[in-house]
Amino acid sequence: MTRLALALLLVTLIHQGCFHFQVEAGDGFIRTRGVHFLLNGSPYYANGFNAYWLMYTASDPSQRPKVSAAFREAASHGLTVARTWAFSDGGYRPLQYSPGSYNEQMFKGLDFVIAEARSYGIKLILSFANNYDSFGGKQQYVSWARSRGQYLSSDDDFFRHPVVKGYFKNHIKTVLYRYNSFTGIHYKDDPTIMAWELMNEPRCTSDPSGRTIQAWIAEMASFVKTIDRNHLLEAGLEGFYGPSTPQRNSLNPGLKIGTDFIANNRIPGIDFATVHAYPDQW
């Protein structure tokens, strides 16, 4: 399901036994306590929208007024959160040309998005990668590894192969440590960002047992939290049940995609759950 604009993103808080945060009054970061979001110690209610195109558009300075207009309109309607991409891998106008090589113009576009969101009081959920081919996706990471002599049998090796996982971890690290050219704040220290998302709609159809995705989320969540304890983290799941709750599998729309909504969201370091609802499709 690639039509992000049609997705209704629902978030659900989950209580974890690990990665507890100290709530600092006035620091501006979104935290959790039990099953509630908090902002500066008070309840916070997310009301937001999807806009995958923000960085891509803002990378052209002449087009930045479109981003400003989107945030201004959103704020005027009481929207408080925007979810967007922090990736564009390979292809035309990429953020990441090749593993570890970045397009500064595109990164400055993301810098602008974060700075502009801040000026309108809008928090951001930033996604690190795409399951699908749009803007590169997992297939681009696999292609990079193949071009460097690695044997990979399918795009799902994104979740398994150590070289590919190393590429992805490097991208996460690069984004977290990015110094914003507009605000002078490293991304990992910026309270404008509400949360990070590991991937837009991860799927691993080659392993419907769910073990591959479970292990990948656990590994990547731990990696993110070793660098950034300020921000919340979510996996980017659509919400499909899996082997841990077989009695609920009949509620899925006929898909076995290697995810497990309950088990995946119980992983330490995952702070809240997401559901992507496509009422035009099912």
From TrEMBL:
Residues 29-282 form the Glycoside hydrolase family domain. GO terms for biological process: polysaccharide catabolic process. Transmembrane segments: none annotated. It catalyses: Random hydrolysis of (1->4)-beta-D-mannosidic linkages in mannans, galactomannans and glucomannans. Residues 1-20 form the signal peptide. It is an enzyme of class 3 (hydrolase). It holds the Pfam family GH5_mannosidase. The keyword Hydrolase applies. It comes from the Eukaryota. Its EC number is 3.2.1.78. Coiled coil: none annotated. One of its GO terms (molecular function) is mannan endo-1,4-beta-mannosidase activity. Keywords: Glycosidase, Hydrolase, Signal. The keyword Hydrolase applies. Belongs to the glycosyl hydrolase 5 (cellulase A) family. This is mannan endo-1,4-beta-mannosidase. The lineage of its organism: Eukaryota, Viridiplantae, Streptophyta, Embryophyta, Tracheophyta.
